[in-house]
């Protein structure tokens, strides 16, 4: 009984001392920090979002009203995913940057940066509501955006496919009943 107690105390001591020494081995801050050059935008205006203290690949993600593809882009090359995320690789200073272009829908947008280690932080950007095209004279000369926030084509095809499968199922059930009743 005493041997088991000493063995358990020894293992516990090794765990405590081993973990404490590993915690001091990290030479840099582990907290990710995300900032935006400008946090108050007008529709269509862009701002640079910077993630500091990140490791490896970084995923920038945005949420909010009117978010659509091409809301987040990469600064180093202008390619964008067909979603509201952009992937970047941290430079030697452990910094990654992406450009956030404000949608035409005013509101509050949260931009989250997550690195390979799962460390994450966010910044909130406010977009002013878009103004109308004008009231007779002295308008801005630009047309308001239309049709951009409609139902996605994938949802329409999914609905049409579901209706089609339902029609096939009903037809099969009717044919099966007719075949059973004629016997």
Task: Characterize the structure shown.
By secondary structure, the protein is of the alpha+beta class. It has a domain at 33-127: Immunoglobulin-like (Sandwich). Helices cover 28% and strands 28% of the residues. The chain has two helices and nine strands, in the order αβββββββββα. The protein has helices at residues 2-23, 153-181, and strands spanning 33-36, 40-41, 46-52, 57-63, 72-74, 85-89, 95-101, 107-115, 120-127. It has a five-stranded mixed β-sheet with strand order 2-9-8-4-6, with no helix packed on it. It has a four-stranded antiparallel β-sheet with strand order 1-3-7-5, with no helix packed on it. Mean pLDDT is 74; it is low at 74-83.
Which descriptors apply to this entry?
alpha+beta; Immunoglobulin-like; five-stranded mixed sheet; 2 helices
Secondary-structure topology with pairs:
Elements: H1 2-23, E1 33-36, E2 40-41, E3 46-52, E4 57-63, E5 72-74, E6 85-89, E7 95-101, E8 107-115, E9 120-127, H2 153-181
Parallel strand pairs: 2-9
Antiparallel strand pairs: 1-3, 3-7, 4-6, 4-8, 5-7, 8-9
Which ranges are low-confidence, i.e. pLDDT below 50, for 5 or more consecutive residues?
74-83
CATH superfamily of one domain: Macroglobulin (MG2) domain
Strand share of the residues?
25-35%
Major sheet attributes: 5 strands, mixed
Percentage of residues in helical conformation = 25-40%
Examine the coordinates and then state which fold CATH places here, giving the name of the CATH topology of one domain: Immunoglobulin-like
Whole-angstrom Rg: 28 Å
């Amino acid at each position: 009984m005493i041997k088991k107690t000493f063995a358990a105390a020894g293992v516990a001591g090794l765990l405590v001392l081993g973990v404490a020494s590993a915690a001091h081995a990290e030479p840099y801050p582990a907290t990710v920090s995300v900032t935006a050059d400008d946090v108050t935008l007008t529709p269509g205006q862009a701002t640079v979002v910077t993630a500091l203290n990140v490791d490896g690949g970084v995923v920038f993600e945005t949420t909010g009203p009117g978010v659509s593809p091409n809301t987040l882009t990469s600064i180093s090359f202008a390619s964008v995913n067909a979603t509201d995320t952009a992937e970047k690789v941290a430079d030697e200073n452990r910094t990654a940057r992406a450009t956030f272009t404000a949608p035409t829908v005013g509101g509050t947008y949260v931009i989250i940066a997550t690195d390979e280690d799962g460390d994450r932080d966010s910044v909130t950007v406010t977009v002013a509501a878009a103004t109308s095209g004008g009231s007779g004279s002295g308008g801005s000369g630009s047309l308001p955006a239309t049709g951009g926030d409609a139902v996605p084509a994938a949802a329409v095809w999914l609905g049409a496919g579901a209706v089609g499968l339902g029609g096939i199922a009903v037809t099969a059930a009717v044919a099966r009943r007719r075949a059973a009743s004629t016997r």
